[in-house]
Fold:
Amino acid sequence: MDQAEKLRELVKAKKSETEIIETKGEEIYTLPSKKTAKIIAVASGKGGVGKSNFTVNVAIELSRLGNRVMILDADLGLANVDIIFGINPKYNLSHVIKEEKDIKDIITETEYGVKVIASGSGVKELVNLSNQQRQQFIEKLIEIENMVDILLIDTGAGISKNTLSFMYASDYSIIITTPEPTALMDAYGLIKVVTLSKQNVPMKLIVNMVNSKEEAKEISSRVVLLSRRFLNTFVEPYGLIYRDKNVLNSVMAQKPFLVLYPATKASECIKEIAQKITKRISSLKSEEEKSDNNSLFKRIFNFFK
Ligand SMILES: Nc1ncnc2c1ncn2[C@@H]1O[C@H](COP(=O)(O)OP(=O)(O)OP(=O)(O)O)[C@@H](O)[C@H]1O
Ligand SMILES: [Mg+2]
Structure:
């Protein structure tokens, strides 16, 4: 409870900081800050299923649709987002963890309008975060809450504490799988762990590297059915991405496929999913405005529970 109390104070302080928008003479005019970021964690059971490519490209499309977007590369210790973007950030999360930099100082602006917080690759401090470091790090997300509309978190594969913490701190999580039985079983394993944690994280499923709509439908209904029958949880099918050789070509060129191959099949799929996310984000925001609660605080509070 001590920690929860501390967080409540922290959130209050941050809120009052951001609510002061204008001063005239002695008077201070304030507006409630409603522009809080919605957090989407992108996760998978199995590695190499396309999380980072999805995150980077959907972020670019979300930005084109008028959202302010930031990516947090939370594949701690094995970062990839900067490579896919073809950027070379000077500072990364390892500097924040070592308390050499503030989280706001390590944000990189990309030419696509998307902001990036890079992770460090091969940095063992990031892989082996203590529970306290992980908590402190999630607390720092409050500092960037008002800077963007959507914070996309690209997590590492599997059910590590790091990945689960980011999923628990999200408004909803997108789980990526491919049609491979191993990827499917691992996706189900992740859904099971999250469900049993009782953190109430809504989960959506995207099937990547499919050859047809029918294949995607077959795969997602299998996961939906299994989750409903054995875990009593609803996982929402959230779209598909076709297997497309231009994805690999764009990784090799270090330029996102949405930019290099705007009309390729994978780009068309990304555009559809970005529309869906934009709609969901605006309805989450209007729900929040109605209920007037502080969702990030609630999530962090849940995290400490
Ligand atoms: N739709 C697609 N069509 C064809 N190949 C794809 C597609 N999506 C991803 N790939 C291939 O899979 C590789 C891995 O993708 P990516 O790095 O995005 O996966 P990841 O889930 O982030 O991996 P990790 O778990 O290691 O972080 C890409 O380099 C690309 O070659
Ligand atoms: Mg990745």
User: Anything to note?
Assistant: The longest helix spans residues 265-291. The pocket of adenosine-5'-triphosphate (ligand 1) is lined by residues 44, 47-53, 75, 80, 157, 208-209, 241, 243-244, 247-248, 251, 266 (CB under 6 Å).
